[in-house]
């Protein structure tokens, strides 16, 4: 007579792997029949039993209604790889594996058959089912409206008819501009030092002298787009800078805008403001309410103009040569106004194109 404890010790691994297989067949080892009394010692709450329950796929049918099963199977049997990739956990190779499996073996007839697909296990399959039944709605990217960041408001047709613009940005001691046509070709791009800015008693005549010199150098164009700073009035520490910016802005408007006597509503304004924050959001340069440097973005635009077949912006060779080392990372940056002037011009055309389409 063989000791029952020895028999159970030999056959216990079989119970852990698949108790259903142990129950349905009489195991014979060395001519001895498996003693059914040993089942009394199997604990259904033990770790092997819990693991077995997780691997069992049969109960899935009870978890979903017939309508839910129909929805899941319909998508798995008809969706293209790109459509399957929109389901959680089915990106990449898994979506292709599903298409290959159903092509070879026919459509899925049960939910349990999904685990036969390579790379898909029980846990993954449950997540896939839930994602199909409860798809996550993708938030639409909110387009930035050009009209929201242009002042004063003008008829869109006037902007669309513009052959070129000059983007002007004022700094604390210099003014930069970028002349760009509607074909995204940079025609002119430079900056001028203004020695009277933030000097002495801020004499209006001294400011006027510096601003007038800049205006005399600006090329002729359809519109002059002047950057509107985003300095808060509540920030008293920056009040001198805000007063400086507003003063230069007002002088540029006065010197560049021709006087119509009497005012003619059929003639568009020649000088416009563009909000600095709008340009920052367009290029992803905003951190909270503050805007970071656009030097890296400008360097990428310059690189793409040489390496890309259809670049975002086209630069003449002489400007690429002139500014190739002007926007390096680290150290003191001298070209922030140049960067801002170019990015403002690019944002103007791109936002105009997006809002028109």
From TrEMBL:
InterPro entries: RuvA_2-like, TEFM. One of its GO terms (molecular function) is DNA polymerase processivity factor activity. Gene3D superfamilies: AF1531-like domain. GO terms for biological process: transcription elongation by mitochondrial RNA polymerase. It comes from the Eukaryota. One of its GO terms (cellular component) is mitochondrial nucleoid. SUPFAM superfamilies: RuvA domain 2-like. This is Uncharacterized protein. The lineage of its organism: Eukaryota, Metazoa, Chordata, Craniata, Vertebrata.
